[in-house]
Amino acid sequence: MNTETTDVLQFNEAGKPKLPTGLNVLTILTFIGCAIQLLASLWSFFTAKTSYDKIDQLSEQMNSDSMPGWAKSMMGDPETMVEMIRKTYENRIPIVLLSVVALALCFYGALQMRQLKKQGYLLYTIGELLPFLTQFLFIGAFAFAGFATYFSIAIAALFIILYTMQRKHLVY
Description:
- It is built from nine helices and no strands.
- It is mostly helical.
- It has one domain.
- Helix 8 packs antiparallel against helix 9 (147-166).
């Protein structure tokens, strides 16, 4: 057997590019975020009925003078909040299903990027944007009111930007 054939048959991992530290940290944070989001999605699904039943109490609480102004500004308009809770309850099944699909895309995309595969970036980005599209389609534009939504958008945009900066390391 000649040496060229032997070298191919005894392939070692020395020629394979190593996972960069930045991509390693981002994917680990993505896995943690996926776990937290899965818990939040399931919690939202199972408590949707309770939230729906307490709409009147929430509306009274938000309109009371005892609630500080800064808290009211973070919550948004009370009527909008009530409508959002109602639509979330009515569409809880498609919302949770699409949330789980989005989580699976993010998780699988991060796994692919850990293997330095370019397709992982696209899967991750679709999975990151799908929940916002789901909210818009099933809840409406007023789902994008309030501090929590703006914070979620900022975190998603930050991770997409950070992964975009790491795309140069994706070689397969």
